[in-house]
Amino acid sequence: MSEFDFGLDRLVIGLFTGLTYGMLAVGLVLVYRSSRFVNFAHGAVGVFGASMLALFVADWGAPYWVAFVVAVIVAALLSGLIEVVVVRRLEGRPSLVGMIATLGLSQLILVSALLINTDGVSGFTFPKPTHLPTFQVQSLPIGTPYVAMLVLAPVVLAGLGWFLKHHRMGMAIRAAADDPDTARLEGIPARWMATLSWAIAGGIAAFSAILVTPTTTGAGMDGLGPDLLLKGLAGAVIARMSSIPIAIAASLGIGVIEQLLLSNPDTRDLVTVVIALIIVVALLRQPQLGRSGQDKGRWRRVVLPPLPASYRTVRSIVWLPRLCVAVGIMVAVGLAYVVSNDTASVLTLVSGYTLVGLSVGLLTGVSGQLSLGQFAYAGIAAAASVHVAASTHNFLFGVLCGVITAALASAIVGIPAMRLKGLALAVSTLAFALATSSWLLRQELFLGDGLSPAKPTWWNYPLEYAVDYYLFALVVLCLGVWIANNLRHGGFGRMVQALRDNEHAARAFTVPNRLRMLQLYAVSGALAGLGGIVIGHGQSQLTVNSFPADASIEVVAVTVVGGLTVTLGPLLGALIIVGLPALVGMGMVGQAVLAVAWLLVVIFLPDGLGGVLVRGRDELYDWLARRHGIDPLRERHGVFDVSGQASSPLHEKPRLEGLVPRVGASARSAGPILTVDSVSRRFGGVVAVDHVGFQVAPGEILGVIGPNGAGKTTCFEIVAGFTAPDRGRIVFDGIDVTGATPEERAREGLVRSFQDAALFPTLTVHETLMIAQERAEPTRLWASALGVRTAERTKTEAADEVLERMRLTRFARHSVGELSTGTRRVVEIACLLSLQPRVLLLDEPSAGIAQSESDALGDLLLGIRDELGTTMVVIEHDLPLLSRLSDRMLAMNLGRVIAAGTPDEVRNDPAVVTSYLGADQAAIHRSGLRLATGADDPDPDPLVTRIQSVPSR
Ligand SMILES: Nc1ncnc2c1ncn2[C@@H]1O[C@H](COP(=O)(O)OP(=O)(O)OP(=O)(O)O)[C@@H](O)[C@H]1O
After folding, report:
1. Following DSSP, what letter does each residue of 160-204 receive, concatenated?
2. Ligand 1, pocket-test mutation among 714, 844, 896, 950, most atoms within 8 A of CB
3. Which residues share a beta bridge with 692?
4. Hey, what domains does the chain have and what are their CATH numbers?
5. Which residues cross the membrane (predicted)?
């Protein structure tokens, strides 16, 4: 091992670069705090500022420092403009859309910067700061850019720190970033504060780019790509995307570590790997980052609901898609016989990008996770396939090994990534992509200095020529599209979509989230791997340059422009973004047009160009259906009375008998079916649940009451397995389930509902019922991938029956998100019953529903107990309803059980009444509690005194 050659000169460079990364990190933190996503255009805005400076100084002859100030202001204005024109339009959409938009912006701004400064922003010719001293540290000449950075950056950062802490405007920025709604109430224009944050970030980006560019050797623009962004991100994530001083300190450390690694020939290549590791470790320590729940309810449907059954009676509707597929394949095959080898190579590349895009479509489109590292798996698969094919002389075996390697790599990266969602996943996959292209693929085990890939053979005819090889690519593409389409439209896609919409509800319906996500990473890795194999074997010499980290970002563009929600979207996107420029030879203007198209699609066409085509197709189907006397509106949407009341399924008597096997008799032990044994749970200083214990007998309904914050929901969370208790045990039907996951408990029959009954807003009612059938008939990944629909048919029949019995058939095709709360409750109960529960934990089932519905709900729950023998524990604020339902009642306050007994005993218990004293008097009156304590109470309960001393809410 060689020595580290780290002296004062390296330290100075380390601090210089560290400051640059720090400036980047500060900009990223500022934007994240106000918009909650990573601005991937941050570096590009800096480059734009730098190119403006070059224009002012080199072309127009302006004095350096005047140009410096103006260029920084221009970049700030540009960044502020982005906030106003782009970011604001994305309000209410998932934060991932913001990140994708800034990826597009980044391309657009970089191209514009190059157009402004046609020579490129090259390090050699870039203007340097004037009027500053230069000196030498050891052998290193410290030029004016270094001096300017080392002197000015601390001044700028200190000024920014002071501004944010002490200036009225800075304080307003922080207030608006922390809680925009409250800030608005206090008269702070939160939106404009976000604009100001973006503007400051833009100015800072330009400041650093202007001073860094002259220190880079050769083309500065390349050095300012994702690699630099990653280094800025490292500091920002260590600072938890919030603290500016920590971001700076961490970035200085990263700058020095980088120089340390560079000072030793053995560790020189490891810089990106080490930074990637730093990022992943920092992210794993804060898994909640980017998981603020802000995206809840912001997702769109992944696929359109299946066509109404009546449409299938129209022959043209059945045959049209088949005809289109047949013609499409014929045209694609025919191209092989008419195009040149060059064009065939481009079409092969398009196929490869499409395959990688299919993996992005699954990951990002269906599960809502943004991965910026899909091309890394493509590279890994290509390398494995080429090696195995060469050593075994079996091409197909090579392909198989390549696909498996990519699937494994993706699943292995997925294990830590499972804790990292949203922003954290995007950042860590970007780090992985860069580490793969800069180090992993360069290893001899992978691509080393380059490989000569074998070509497939067709009945002893090697597909050497590009036109022949293109046919191989086409076969793989068709296979990939078929599998991706099956996955999206089958049980697997539905489950992943459910996990995206509402992970807790999916787990309560027995969907094992970790296993499913791991499977998702594996199949998306395999699809990306297929793409890599197609690209890899098509090259005469395969090097790391075939799989650059930027391609991972480009393929996101391909998928977004084509349509994240449409299976064939990536094909459309790849033809436009990869194929068109290569075939037509578009210059920079063409690239700018494409980048603008990217942005416009993200902003105005959430389903991409593919979405437009799908909508057109559906209009055509509707037209064809109408010609056959079918009413599309009625068939697609059913009869839907939005007034709610009349159409509430709660007002119709369900047919419960025989819906599920009577469960009361199936108890394993004769004792209580559920025992909660002295469980406690503390959150920081709050004791949410304090030694709570109770038992429930089979077939019993136990009511739980208590004021807000009493600990009822936390207690349910513990019983259902969503929150681990600090102490105590949960025994279900004689078995200790304290360590079991929520899905395991639900599978055993311990099933919970949620207070908001949100379910899965983008799924239809029918699909939601299908998710609930997962317990009886779990979806198999292979069956979903191969389009085997046996289990799907069984589940469909079961779901249809439950819907009919619960009087929900007319809502079957409606999205859950558009239902009234009352109807959603019935859908939720229908799902819970499909899980064949033995104990139902119902959390405020009457919340948000009308009084008349509430009475009907009581009948329904009693019916379920009487007909099916289901045991229930019900949290409820509606005391008359709960008293009617409950055999026994339990009252909680301040995390403890304060009374237990018959409903009458508990309602009249003085401790219970006083526990509600902090609550609204009208609420007490409504609840039916009698105020049995007060001034005339001769013997006040000590508990009363304690509660009365607690400030009222
Ligand atoms: N994840 C958490 N982190 C921190 N504190 C929590 C968490 N969950 C609950 N708490 C706190 O624990 C206490 C009990 O909350 P819990 O939601 O269980 O009460 P509750 O009786 O269900 O109230 P409500 O009727 O309003 O639903 C509250 O003070 C709450 O703020």
Report:
1. HHHHHHHSHHHHHHHHHHH-HHHHHHTT--HHHHHHHHHHHHHHH
2. 714
3. 679
4. 8-284 (1.10.3470), 360-550 (no CATH), 664-684+707-870 (3.40.50.300)
5. 12-32, 39-58, 64-84, 96-116, 146-164, 192-213, 233-257, 269-286, 317-339, 346-366, 395-415, 422-441, 469-487, 517-535, 555-580, 592-614
